[in-house]
Automatic annotation (TrEMBL):
The keyword Membrane does not apply. The keyword Isomerase applies. Gene3D superfamilies: Chorismate mutase. The lineage of its organism: Bacteria, Pseudomonadati, Pseudomonadota, Betaproteobacteria, Burkholderiales. This is chorismate mutase. It is an enzyme of class 5 (isomerase). It holds the Pfam family CM_2. It comes from Comamonas jiangduensis. Keywords: Isomerase.
Length: 116
């Protein structure tokens, strides 16, 4: 298997470094956007502010991605830090999306049909 770390080109100057980073950002940004779409789905399915943050799931994700990072020749501590920071952003976004969906008419759990 070609590890991710083995795909990094040796660079002679910062232009080459930045070209490499830009090429990866072209791949990363659409994936981050797609991931954010699942936060909207989660907000609607959970439909409860108290369920947005899920510590057990956060730990399960960390436990899954650390060995993946290691297998790709990366630094698992770095990837864990990035994932924890990223998930905090997605948790904020999930709260934001739940508030937006509620403003658009999503009824709080168990209150379908209740008068405001
Ligand atoms: O799996 C969930 O419950 C989600 O809402 C997604 C997600 C994430 O993957 O970023 C976000 C918030 C939770 O704390 C756990 C994980």
């Amino acid at each position: 298997m070609m590890r991710a770390i083995d795909k990094v080109n040796h660079c002679q100057n910062m232009q080459q470094v930045r070209d490499g980073v830009n090429a990866l950002d072209d791949i990363l940004v659409p994936l981050l956007v797609e991931r954010s779409g699942y936060m909207t789905q989660a907000a609607r399915v959970k439909n409860d502010e108290n369920l947005v943050r899920d510590e057990a799931r956060i730990q399960a994700i960390i436990d899954r991605v650390r060995p993946m990072a290691q297998a790709q020749g990366g630094n698992p501590d770095l990837i864990e830090r990035i994932y924890r920071a990223m998930m905090e952003c997605y948790i904020d976004y999930e709260h934001q999306e739940l508030a937006r969906l509620r403003a658009e008419g999503l009824q709080p759990q168990g209150r379908e049909g209740e008068q405001a």
